[in-house]
Amino acid sequence: MSFVIRRLFPPGELKINEKLPPLDSTWEEYAFFQTEQGAKWKKTESNQTLIEGEEQQPLFAVNFKEDDGRRRKLFSAVIPAGRREAFMAAGKSSTADESKQQTSQPDSRIYLMRSQFRDPWKSLLQTAKNAKAAFNESNSNDAKNIAARLDIVKTSREQIQTISWLVLLDFANFLSEKMPRIWRTMNGQTVSLALSPDETKLVSAITNTILETNFANDLITVPPFSPPIYTANQVKRSLKNALLAVKPANQQTAEQIENGLEKVGISYNRSAPDALYPKFLFPLTDANFALKSNLGDIDNENPINELAGLIEKALPPLPPNQPLAPIPLAAQTPMDMREGWFVIRCVYERPLCGAIDPPVLSAPSKPFQIAGFFDPDAPARPIRIALPIDTSPAGLRKFDKNTAFMMSDLLCGQVNRMKGITFADLVFSILPFPLHKSLNVPDAGGCKDNGLSIGMMCSLSIPIITICALVLLIIIVSLLDFIFRWLPFLMVCFPLPGLKAKDE
Predict the structure, then answer these.
(1) Do 169 and 121 form a contact (C-beta atoms < 8 A)?
(2) What is the distance between the alpha carbons of residues 123 and 425, in angstroms, rounded to a whole number?
(3) What stretch of H or E contains 114?
(4) Are the C-beta atoms of 170 and 117 separated by less than 8 Å?
(5) In angstroms, rounded to a whole number, what is the distance separating the alpha carbons of residues 473 and 470?
(6) Which residues contact 449 (CB under 8 A, 6 or more apart)?
(7) How many helices (H) and strands (E) does the chain have?
(8) Regarding beta strands 60-65 and 71-76, do their DSSP bridges make them parallel or antiparallel, or are they unpaired?
(9) Do residues 82 and 44 lie in contact, with contact meaning Cβ atoms separated by under 8 Å?
(10) What's the pLDDT at 363?
(11) Contact criterion met (CB below 8 Å) for 342 and 8
């Protein structure tokens, strides 16, 4: 015995932009099932038929006695209300043919490319934009502002270059694994068949995305890096050369570069770069310059989107019977996120009888909705968090440090860096000039003791952590109240007579 949860939708084509009609008997049932591409709702041909692959929930027997002494058995179940978001976010299956459905799914390689290459590159544009705005604010020529401008250039380029190496590495791995013909062509190798027009356009776009001479010279000679730390040969002049530099043809060298980026534990510092960082420069953006491309100057998102579009068009078809990787949940299109109506049908099966005795479905339950966790019309779900009563030092010392945080040597070093930063430093770092003051806390790497890398296990008390969380919550809520105006509705306090922290 089991039961299935069916979702109700109005008949005909579902129009997201129009208001749902009132619930009535004409609404149709959809079955919930799992596929390699995520959860789906499939329209039932017959409400009395169990759909192949439909998700079934268990029933359990409850034995009891009637008033006249007869023994009875009642099957009960628990509705999985905690899975409401999974039900609401499931997509729509438009066909019962699983093979056809598989080929009609979006290509998950596209989402992999976007998450590893396109979107991080677009985020770097915002980093460069913020650095440029800070640079322009310090427009006077006194010694203090000149030093501040140099510090902005140095800090932003170090951050951008670090992310650029990682993006280039992921992009190179994507090309070598998902688009081997493109990768072989870029390496000067021959391919069995000539490149298609889409593949040719992609190779051309990658090759023609370049650093101009002024940009390259500025990377080498900008103060305070005189004499230059990097030579002209170490500044790659095109996206193609940068990709080949981060993943060279020599397998051992390529593994050393990738392992170095994975293992490096100190932030990139142009004045004294760690040996594990690559020995070339190719920032994907900059506060003062832009990459040039036949798609346009890459100082905005449009050329990056066009390059991503060329990659999508040039993706080779998958070999037969090779499934696609699952699409990320955030990229799956839900069938309808509006109010969800459901019914339950019990299922009686006799599997040993085979096709001569198919599963029998009961009549549907009354339509119902599953309340969301923050549904204001749903019954409140009580959550009570007890804070320490005696918050004096004498009282707080009685709480056992029953929570342990494990920190690696690298995280330990980063925590130590934060210890050197005061609240005033944080405030000054976000203020405009002339009040702006950049954070100057050098990265010393991981924690060490006599040359031995060490981690830490810090023991804390949960009740004291809870107090800190409450205090920080009140501070942040008060600061953001001028935007949301939520303070009158946030907290309601009731007096508790006799709740004393100290005995008299």
Answers:
(1) no
(2) 25
(3) none
(4) yes
(5) 5
(6) none
(7) 16, 13
(8) antiparallel
(9) no
(10) 94
(11) yes
Residues of the chain with pLDDT under 50: 96-103
Which position has the token pair 């309808």?
A: 336
pLDDT at 99: 45
What does the block give as tokens for 373?
């966790």
pLDDT (tens digit per residue) in 265-283? 888 988 888 899 999 999 9
Cα separation, 237 vs 226, whole angstroms: 21
Domain locations in the chain as residue ranges: 2-105+334-361, 108-314, 393-490
Single-letter amino acid code for the residue at 314: A
Q: Which two tokens stand for residue 354?
A: 């085979």
The gap from C-alpha 44 to its chain's centroid, in whole angstroms, comes to 34
First to last CA, the chain: 62
pLDDT digits (tens, 9 = 90+) for 352-404: 887 788 899 999 999 999 988 777 777 777 888 888 888 888 888 888 888 88
Instruction: State which H helix or E strand residue 111 sits in.
Output: helix 108-113
pTM value is: 0.72
Q: DSSP label at 281?
A: B
In the numeric block, which tokens belong to residue 278?
């690559």
The residues, ordered by sequence, that sit 6+ positions from 37 with a Cβ below 8 Å of its Cβ are 101, 102, 105, 324, 326, 327, 332
Burial class (CB in 10 A: 0-12, 13-18, 19+), 153: buried
